[in-house]
Amino acid sequence: MTGGSDRGLEPGRPADAPSALVEQRRDHAAGVLAQTLENRDATAYVHVGTERDPAIRYSCSPPANGLVAVAYDGTDGEWLIRTADGSDGHPAADLAAVFADRGREGTILTPARIPHDAALYLENAGFEVASTDAIERARATKTAAEHERIAAVQRAASAGIRHAASLLADATVVDGRLAVTEGADDPVPLTPARVRTAIDEAIVGAGAFPAGNTAINPSTGPTAVDGEALSPDEPIVLAVAPRGPAGYYGGLVRTLIVDSDGGRERRVHVAVTQSFRSARSLLTASSASVHTVAADLEAEVRSFGLDAGVEATVAGVGLESRERPTNGDEIEPGAVIRLDVAARVDETSRLRIADVLVVTDEGERPDRLAAPEHSLSPAALLEP
Question: In angstroms, what CA-CA distances link 71 with 34, 45, 342, 376?
Answer without folding.
Answer: 12, 5, 42, 50
